[in-house]
C-alpha cells in the first residue's frame, strides 16, 4: 500500500475534554506518524474556507460556529493508506452510528461535537494539508 498523508484535526470538544494525547496515541498505535502539528484557534474565515465544500449545507453555520468555539490541534499524519486508516480510526460522522472502539464512539458527544476531522480522499488531503501547513513545516518519516 502506498504511503499517504492526511490532515487530522482534533476538534474543540476533544481538546476541552483533555483527550488530545489519547487520540494521538491511537494514530500512532495504528502505524500513523505525526509529521506536522500545531494548536490553533480558528477564525471564522479559517473555518469557512476549510469547510468550503459544505457552504451550501444547512449545518454549515453550526459547523463553523463549533469549529471556532475553542482551540483545535491540526496535524498531518503519514503512513501506509493514511487517508482510509484515519477514517476507520475516527468512525462514522454521527457518534451514535460509530463502531465501538473508534475515536468518535469513545470521545464524541454529537454529530456536531464529533471529536475529530479527517480528510476524506487523497485529493482532499493535499488541499487540506496545504491549507494549514507550508511544505517546509512537514517533517516526513517515510
Ligand atoms: P469531517 O469532515 O469533520 O471529518 O466529518 P465527516 O467527513 O465525517 O463529515 P462531513 O460530511 O464532511 O461533515 C463535516 C462536519 O459537518 C457536521 N455535519 N453535520 N447535521 C448534519 O447532518 C451534519 N452532517 C455533517 C459534522 O460535524 C461533520 O463532522
Ligand atoms: Mg468531511
From TrEMBL:
<keyword id="KW-0963">Cytoplasm</keyword>
<dbReference type="GO" id="GO:0005737">
    <property type="term" value="C:cytoplasm"/>
</dbReference>
<dbReference type="GO" id="GO:0006241">
    <property type="term" value="P:CTP biosynthetic process"/>
</dbReference>
<keyword id="KW-0067">ATP-binding</keyword>
<dbReference type="InterPro" id="IPR001564">
    <property type="entry name" value="Nucleoside_diP_kinase"/>
</dbReference>
<keyword id="KW-0546">Nucleotide metabolism</keyword>
<dbReference type="InterPro" id="IPR036850">
    <property type="entry name" value="NDK-like_dom_sf"/>
</dbReference>
<dbReference type="GO" id="GO:0006183">
    <property type="term" value="P:GTP biosynthetic process"/>
</dbReference>
<feature type="binding site">
    <location>
        <position position="104"/>
    </location>
    <ligand>
        <name>ATP</name>
    </ligand>
</feature>
<dbReference type="GO" id="GO:0005524">
    <property type="term" value="F:ATP binding"/>
</dbReference>
<keyword id="KW-0460">Magnesium</keyword>
<dbReference type="Pfam" id="PF00334">
    <property type="entry name" value="NDK"/>
</dbReference>
<protein>
    <recommendedName>
        <fullName>Nucleoside diphosphate kinase</fullName>
        <ecNumber>2.7.4.6</ecNumber>
    </recommendedName>
</protein>
<feature type="active site" description="Pros-phosphohistidine intermediate">
    <location>
        <position position="117"/>
    </location>
</feature>
<keyword id="KW-0418">Kinase</keyword>
<keyword id="KW-0547">Nucleotide-binding</keyword>
<keyword id="KW-0597">Phosphoprotein</keyword>
<comment type="similarity">
    <text>Belongs to the NDK family.</text>
</comment>
<keyword id="KW-0808">Transferase</keyword>
<dbReference type="GO" id="GO:0006228">
    <property type="term" value="P:UTP biosynthetic process"/>
</dbReference>
<keyword id="KW-0479">Metal-binding</keyword>
<feature type="binding site">
    <location>
        <position position="59"/>
    </location>
    <ligand>
        <name>ATP</name>
    </ligand>
</feature>
<comment type="subunit">
    <text>Homotetramer.</text>
</comment>
<dbReference type="InterPro" id="IPR034907">
    <property type="entry name" value="NDK-like_dom"/>
</dbReference>
<feature type="binding site">
    <location>
        <position position="11"/>
    </location>
    <ligand>
        <name>ATP</name>
    </ligand>
</feature>
<feature type="domain" description="Nucleoside diphosphate kinase-like">
    <location>
        <begin position="3"/>
        <end position="140"/>
    </location>
</feature>
<feature type="binding site">
    <location>
        <position position="114"/>
    </location>
    <ligand>
        <name>ATP</name>
    </ligand>
</feature>
<comment type="function">
    <text>Major role in the synthesis of nucleoside triphosphates other than ATP. The ATP gamma phosphate is transferred to the NDP beta phosphate via a ping-pong mechanism, using a phosphorylated active-site intermediate.</text>
</comment>
<feature type="binding site">
    <location>
        <position position="93"/>
    </location>
    <ligand>
        <name>ATP</name>
    </ligand>
</feature>
<dbReference type="GO" id="GO:0046872">
    <property type="term" value="F:metal ion binding"/>
</dbReference>
<dbReference type="GO" id="GO:0004550">
    <property type="term" value="F:nucleoside diphosphate kinase activity"/>
</dbReference>
<feature type="binding site">
    <location>
        <position position="87"/>
    </location>
    <ligand>
        <name>ATP</name>
    </ligand>
</feature>
Amino acid at each position: 500500500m502506498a504511503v499517504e498523508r492526511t490532515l487530522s484535526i482534533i476538534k474543540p470538544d476533544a481538546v476541552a475534554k483533555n483527550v488530545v494525547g489519547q487520540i494521538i496515541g491511537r494514530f500512532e498505535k495504528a502505524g500513523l506518524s505525526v509529521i506536522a502539528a500545531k494548536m490553533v484557534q480558528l477564525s471564522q474565515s479559517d473555518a469557512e474556507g476549510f469547510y468550503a465544500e459544505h457552504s451550501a449545507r444547512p449545518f454549515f453555520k453550526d459547523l463553523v460556529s463549533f469549529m471556532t468555539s475553542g482551540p483545535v490541534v491540526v496535524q498531518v499524519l503519514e503512513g501506509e493508506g493514511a487517508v482510509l486508516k484515519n477514517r476507520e480510526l475516527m468512525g462514522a460522522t454521527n457518534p451514535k452510528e460509530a463502531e465501538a472502539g473508534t475515536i468518535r464512539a469513545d470521545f464524541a458527544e454529537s454529530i456536531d461535537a464529533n471529536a475529530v476531522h479527517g480528510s476524506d480522499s487523497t485529493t482532499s488531503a493535499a488541499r487540506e494539508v496545504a491549507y494549514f501547513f507550508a511544505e517546509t513545516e512537514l517533517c516526513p518519516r517515510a
